[in-house]
């Protein structure tokens, strides 16, 4: 069982990451990641700063054009495992650019429900972010 101080540490690190995403500050987002971090988003895997940064840009968490405009992550609930903090969240934004090969933009506001697990290292950096997102609303919009 993890203690209160470890829960608080994870919550603080998680919130810094989410705040940077919602601010669309790519430098601040990447500052939350460890040098050899891994990120998985549904079936896509990203390793290291360059790939993880490109993934954040591609979805819309930066000042550069991405699949979504005005993208926001809203945390609904948080849970703790022995090694991770797990969040249930909703992404909201306007779907304006192609996402992967399957999802053409609709120009509509969408809401995507997801579950994400975050593991931080002993230097308070994000070592692994795993996201599973329901793309059903994108498929229904096509």
TL;DR of this structure?
With 142 residues, this protein is an alpha+beta fold.
Could you walk me through the main structural features you see in this protein, from its secondary elements to its overall organization?
- By secondary structure, this protein is an alpha+beta fold.
- The protein has one domain (4-141): Nuclear Transport Factor 2, Chain: A (Roll), CATH 3.10.450.
- The protein is 30% helix and 40% strand.
- It contains four helices and six strands.
- Strands 2-1-6-5-4-3 form a six-stranded mixed β-sheet.
- Strand 3 (68-80) and strand 4 form a beta hairpin.
- The longest helix is centred in the first third of the chain and has 19 residues, at 4-22.
- The radius of gyration is 15 Å and the shape is globular.
- The chain starts with a helix and ends with a helix.
The total strand number stands at 6
Class from helix and strand fractions: alpha+beta
Spans of at least 5 consecutive residues with low confidence: none
Provide the gyration radius in Å. Answer: 15 Å
Summarize the amount of helix as a percent range: 25-40%
Question: How many DSSP H or I helices?
Answer: 4
CATH architecture: Roll
> Which fold name corresponds to the CATH topology?
Nuclear Transport Factor 2, Chain: A
Order of helices and strands: HHEEHEEEEH
């Amino acid at each position: 069982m993890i203690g209160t101080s470890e829960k608080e540490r994870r919550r603080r690190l998680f919130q810094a990451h989410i705040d940077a995403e919602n601010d669309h500050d790519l430098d601040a987002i990447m500052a939350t990641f460890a040098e050899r971090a891994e990120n998985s988003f549904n079936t896509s895997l990203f390793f290291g700063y360059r790939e993880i940064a490109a993934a954040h840009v591609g979805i819309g968490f930066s000042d550069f054009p991405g699949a979504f405009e005005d993208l926001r992550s809203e945390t609904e609930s948080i849970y703790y495992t022995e090694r991770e903090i797990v969040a249930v969240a909703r992404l909201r934004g306007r779907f304006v650019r192609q996402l992967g090969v399957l999802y053409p933009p609709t120009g509509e506001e969408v809401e995507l429900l997801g579950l994400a697990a975050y593991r931080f290292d002993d230097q308070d950096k994000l070592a692994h972010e795993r996201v599973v997102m329901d793309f059903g609303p994108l498929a229904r919009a096509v």
